[in-house]
Amino acid sequence: MPSVHGSARHEVAAGGHAARGLVLGASRRSVLMAALGAGLASICGPVVAEARPMASLAAVLDVLLPADDFSPSASALGIERDIADFVAESDMMTRLFLAALDWMDHLADLPFRDLTSAQQAEVMAFMETADFNAVPGRFYHILRALAVEFYYARAEAIIGLPLNATPQPEGYPPPWG
User: Fold this and answer.
1) Is the pTM of this model over 0.90?
2) pLDDT per residue rounded down to tens, the chain (177 residues)
3) Which string of DSSP letters, residue by residue, matches 24-56?
4) CA 47, chain centre distance (Å)
5) What is the rounded distance in angstroms from the CA atom of residue 83 to the CA atom of residue 55?
6) What one-character DSSP code corresponds to residue 154?
């Protein structure tokens, strides 16, 4: 099977019509990985020496998507496992996540997961406004996009929300009696 780059060159040389099929035929997962991973090589250094599992990832996700009256927290749905599996598909994404989580775990005497809620919120607020081309900012925005994607793809995340079901296939009832 030819590489994507090789086949793209061949298709563009053939008039470009088939090149559109590469993007349209790509899986949602591969397009998401390519978009989110763009430019990581420039900001990610070597992999963290002690590449422990992403122990604080669940706590970070629970700051972004906490439990409320309508839906469970991200960790209650196991979103951290989904994200860890997704990230494992890319060396650069893994390096980013390990570097960022290691940085977060060494900001204080305690790892991020053991900080108070106020301290966790303060760290996340800093990361939200950090430069996108620095590890904290890039990590925050990629993690937030992945968290929302994986969280709301689960029926359990929206089942308690006061949403009206779509009226299709029957349509809306007429305004007359």
Assistant:
1) no
2) 443 343 333 333 334 444 334 444 566 666 566 655 555 545 444 443 333 558 899 999 999 999 998 899 999 999 999 999 999 999 999 999 999 999 999 999 999 999 999 999 999 999 999 999 999 999 999 999 999 999 999 989 888 777 766 666 666 666 754
3) HHS-HHHHHHHHHHTTHHHH--SPPSS----TT
4) 20
5) 13
6) S
